[in-house]
Amino acid sequence: MSDVIVTVGLDLAKNVFQVHGVDADGRVCVRRKLRRAEVLAFFGELSPCLVRMEACASSHFWVREIAGLGHEVKLMPLAYVKPYVKRGKTDASDAEAICEAVTRPTMRFVAVKSEEQQAVLMLHKTRELLVRQRTMQTNALRAHLAELGIVAAQGVDGLSSLKAHFHRVIGSLPGHAVGALQALLRMADGLVEEIERLESRILDWHRTNDASHRLATIPGVGPIIASAIAANVPDASLFKTARQFAAWLGLTPRANSSGGKERQMGISKQGDAYIRRLLVSGASAVMRFTRQGDPGKAWLAGIKERKRPKVAAVAQANKTARIAWAILRRNEVFVARSA
């Protein structure tokens, strides 16, 4: 048996990392803890080998750093590693499970994102956070004004009229209430400006990225959706079929079979909830134009006649996801089929 390490399982952490290395025969060669400052020095002394770790916070950074030392590094989904953990939950058992899981021929891996792609995703996640905060503040503003008898219709126009009405009657309202409401208005206005700045940055990246530009040719896919998919999926070849890509986004039915009886439930809702939500939102926009009798939307019109609107929107989102995979895989643009 050889003592040369060929496979290393690395359990990531904030300060203390666990290493589990085996040779070609599966015999344990190293099992030790590393401080954060010792990780790169340890792998720098090893001969090129296979390094595997779970996809988690900071994992993409460590993949790039360790791969730069000449090792082959891959990421695995956490859910696929968990079944290989033996009794007890420790860092050592996690590292051993990672080392064991990578030997399975059916194991799936996570595409490693570049710093640029991660930066774009930071723009998306920050925008999503600010949009949620803006919604919370506008809801609070509506609720507080309703307590004072000031109400308006839903939507952006309704909110504008609500603000205008508030400024007209501000003199007749209690002073403390005015102070609280003005604070909410200032915060909401500041969030709107920040969201617009983030969207401008996303649009700038979208214009310079070929994959994102091609994805935007799909009906219902704009710069926000296109850039989110392009940044999240650096390598579409990891998905063998379009259905696998749709399943990764949680847009396919969840199977529940037993005793030879097959039953399909609602969508699985696995994978990236952000992209799934964007795709469903884009599909809802496409549905609004199916009443015009466009032959290219006959399939969606048929779905709408048989299913509830939300179910039809998810079906359209599933179809959009499959088209997006084909565009990324084949380096093409979307071309609508004639009737």
Automatic annotation (TrEMBL):
It comes from the Bacteria. Residues 8-147 form the Transposase IS110-like N-terminal domain. Residues 213-292 form the Transposase IS116/IS110/IS902 C-terminal domain. InterPro entries: Transp_IS110-like_N, Transpos_IS110, Transposase_20. This is IS110 family transposase. It comes from Fuscovulum ytuae. The lineage of its organism: Bacteria, Pseudomonadati, Pseudomonadota, Alphaproteobacteria, Rhodobacterales.
